Task: structure prediction
Amino acid sequence: MISVVMPTKGRPAQARACVERLFETTRGHDVECVVVASDMGDFDASGLDEHVLERVTMIRCEEPGPMPAWNAGAQIAQGEWLVTGADDLVWREGWLEAALANARYGFCGLYDGHTDPSERATHFLLSRNYIEAHQGGDLMPPYYRSWYPDVEISEIARRAGAYVCPIEARVEHRHPDWKDAPDDTTYQAGRAHHAKDRRTFYRRQRFGFPNEAVAWGEDVRPIIGVPLERCVPYADEVFWAFIAIAQQGYPFIQLPYTRIDVARNKFGMHLLNSDFTHLVMLDLDHDHRHDVVKRLVRRVEADRRRWVVSGLNFRRGQPYEPIAFVVKDGATYGVADWEPDALMSVDMIGCGCVIVAREVFEQLPGPPWFWNDYRGAAIDNWPGEDITFSGLCRQHEIELWVDTATSSDHLIDGRVNEAVYRAYQQAHGDVGTEIESP
Result:
């Protein structure tokens, strides 16, 4: 027997039509359909033929999201083969024959009419033996709310040498992303979980998709990037600090001389292609403490949800303020006071010394993640790459933190640090006021 498990929510008529079409395209096969609804009113069985009704089982699953529904349906399904159905699918003639003919290893992806089948499938025909051997017994990985389970299942099958997705096994997916379905509340609710599900996927991918939730307590393994845009006019002051940091065993990314925005983007790309967990960027025109990396690492070790932590560094030009800004009511303000040895939540940071978790680069669109915005250059307002990066993080709800206990002097003809800032503040009045928004 083949069991099609079909979650549904808020689409009673559409779900009924989907069930009708399922049995129209599977004549001659021993097929059942398990409809899993979040509410008993989500499925309208009126008008279904008697021979269809006797092969439909409906259950209720109150746990939110389609993953619990698929897995609950799989538990009561009778078939040795399971199909991940949905109420927004259009079953095409011959799909089941093609899927069974190609499922030599207990796996066959179903072609949705849109996604490149060489990359992944979005729905599947799976044998119970395959599910037990490769997916820990779950029809769908229960670690996601709405997105990315299909990506994980396709990747697992590819690693097992079982992946196949013939275009003849066509089950069209009607979805607002492809402009062939209305963007109803069910789609909108699922979209709210995309960012979190994406982070979950990349983290599980790094651990080989274990048959359990991945803990967030992994050791922090940083790699250091030093942009070499400028020459080293302060070599006598910064050289030995970098030597001292390197002697602690931290690896450095070797990158040739290039623009600083280009360097930062390449550092992020390098991190994603490595097994390191964090990128620490240390600018060459700062005199860094020998323990700067340890200080930044301890902040993310204390709470792994802190993905971006910058040191408290200062602009090299007047008024020498901290590169730490907050946005309020559409205006941007510089931070004028702070607690010592504390973490400040801000909206914009500088990257003179900063630690960034790899999840940031996995979640944000890009590269590029860093760029200079010259649109306001005519009025002397051109945010640099650290400010545009901050804005991108803010758009994607990634918190930015400043460690007030960690600061690296910004070198010019002299040194810019808190003492210089306070002296300027005393001479010219409070400078923690509104500045031009980038």
Notes: The mean pLDDT is 89. The domain at 2-206 is CATH 3.90.550.10 (Spore Coat Polysaccharide Biosynthesis Protein SpsA; Chain A).
